[in-house]
Specification:
- The chain is an alpha+beta fold.
- It folds into 2 domains: 131 residues, Nucleotidyltransferase, domain 5; 58 residues.
- Helix content is 33%, strand content 18%.
- The protein is built from 7 helices and 8 strands.
- It has a 4-stranded antiparallel beta sheet with strand order 3-6-7-8, with no helix packed on it.
- The mean pLDDT is 88.
Length: 216
């Protein structure tokens, strides 16, 4: 699913249930990137002030509750009996409501009764709030200290968030290491054994270029 659609759905969830404190993802798109720099979706969530955790690659058991929940949803909604996507969506929403609000849990009438905080986190969300409060500062703090390998292409450039950073044609074919120097706000590109090759401004690394902020 495209990251923009996922982001839109998350905004709706946050508006209804409130912003969470923490989210945990696997490494499949558009959530994670298997040890590389966070995806734009991840950066957006970090900029909202959320703590974002990515489980180690190929360890679905680390998200066991989610995996089990998907299995329960499949069994209850019976997607093989749905005649359309709209019907499947309706049945998933109904079964989700049943499990949350009607099905007994922990000696209570429902999960909602056992955990009344599920109704709302108390951390409100709206597009106007996001425009006023989303910050690049936690994004910079998160990325600082990460070292990412990149292959220099034939034109002397490396790929970065849908754009390119020029490293120099003399470095064509090299594997380089990139890290962020937050002080001057620069990408530092070095050889693998530590010799610095060049520094570049944070091209393609702002909320507008990454498409992180709401348009309405």
């Amino acid at each position: 699913m495209p990251a923009g659609l996922v982001q839109a759905e998350l905004r709706e969830c946050f508006a209804r249930w409130g912003r969470p404190l923490t989210l945990q993802f696997d490494n499949g798109g558009p959530w994670g990137s298997c040890g590389d720099l966070p995806t734009p979706l991840g950066l957006w969530l970090i900029g909202l002030g959320l703590v974002v955790n990515w489980i180690p690659p190929a360890t679905p058991q680390e998200n066991g509750v989610v995996e089990r929940g998907q299995g329960v949803a499949w069994n209850w909604a019976e997607p093989d009996r749905c005649g359309s996507v709209a019907e499947l969506q309706r049945r998933m929403e109904e079964e989700d409501r049943m499990q949350r609000e009607c099905y007994p849990h922990a000696g209570r009438a429902s999960r909602m009764a056992a955990y009344p905080g599920l109704i709302h986190s108390g951390r409100c969300y709206a597009a106007a709030w996001e425009r006023a409060h989303w910050s690049m500062d936690p994004v910079i703090a998160h990325v600082t200290g990460m070292e990412i390998a990149r292959q220099v292409d034939g034109s002397g450039k490396i790929g970065f968030y849908g754009g390119k950073i020029y490293v120099g044609t003399v470095n064509r074919g090299k594997t380089v290491v990139v890290h962020l120097d937050a002080g001057p706000g620069e990408w530092v590109i070095s050889e693998r054994h530590g010799v610095e090759l060049c520094r570049r401004p944070l091209t393609q690394f702002d909320a507008t270029s990454l498409g992180l902020l709401p348009t309405e």
